[in-house]
């Protein structure tokens, strides 16, 4: 009996050692197959194109292809929920935007950035203020717009994205920060529809991204008045920030790489190193800066504190607008 017990214990010990060895080897060999990268927004959108180049740069670092899969819809919640429910083995990761902060506040989903494994941020993208050249009031400067809007409450019309979306929040930050009262006209979709409204002269101004505005700027239908970023944009150094005019109005979205919860530390660290290299690649930086964004890298331990601070300002905006759902 004693010999049998010793034999059982010996076998158990060997199995444990063998299992640990296999786990160590598996972790060391990761990744052994292509990685799926979920993008919770439409193919061809600003965040999608930035993600695709980022993944292209991270792939050789990891030694495996990263396959981008778009899962748009419901304010990015479809993609987020699929990512959160993925197996935590490192073969399904994805991106998030500022909606990973805002959606829970709006009651669109019960999760936020705390419920994912954070891997690294890779850009920040300020919203910008544009004026139509087709309306009766074709504002030429941001100072002219603010002065007129203050003297004529609700006479200026402004298109925004859907209520709660990033560009809607940017528009609210702009109006509350400058103290102007305008006629806000939300659109059902995102920046593309807002651009159409402003460029067509249906409204006076709009808040969206430079990337979305550029074709209509080139066509002479839009005028770039100011950026809500913390600094002037590369290639548009003559266009001021709203902040430098003395107003507390800064709003920037961001892109972050995330994994499902409980992603093993060794795997998340390997992913973090690869995406840090990708986010600092000169070609990638040139690509995003030429489209109105900036390199913005935060390590995994910096992301949650950053989002916590952002959440406070977003919560105030939503509370004032009466759309805050989280207690």
Structural class comes to alpha/beta
Mean pLDDT: 89
What's the CATH first level of the largest domain? Alpha Beta
Please bin the fraction of helical residues.
40-55%
Count of helical stretches: 11
CATH level 3 topology of the largest domain: D-Maltodextrin-Binding Protein, domain 2
Distance between the termini: 63 Å
% residues in beta strands: 15-25%
N-to-C order of helices and strands:
HEHEHEHEEHEHEHEHEEHHH
Rounded radius of gyration (Å): 23 Å
CATH architecture of the largest domain: 3-Layer(aba) Sandwich
Protein architecture, described:
The termini are far apart. The protein contains eleven helices and ten strands. The chain has 327 residues and is an alpha/beta fold. Helix 2 crosses helix 9, helix 4 crosses helix 11 and helix 7 (191-199) packs parallel to helix 8. The protein folds into two domains: 33-125 and 253-321, 3-Layer(aba) Sandwich (D-Maltodextrin-Binding Protein, domain 2), CATH 3.40.190.150; 128-245, D-Maltodextrin-Binding Protein, domain 2 (3-Layer(aba) Sandwich). Strands 2-1-3-10-4 form a five-stranded mixed sheet. The protein has a five-stranded mixed sheet with strand order 7-6-8-5-9. The chain is globular. The protein has helices at 2-29, 46-62, 77-84, 99-106, 142-151, 166-178, 191-199, 210-218, 265-279, 282-289, 300-321, and strands spanning 35-39, 66-70, 92-96, 117-126, 128-132, 157-160, 183-186, 205-208, 222-227, 252-259.
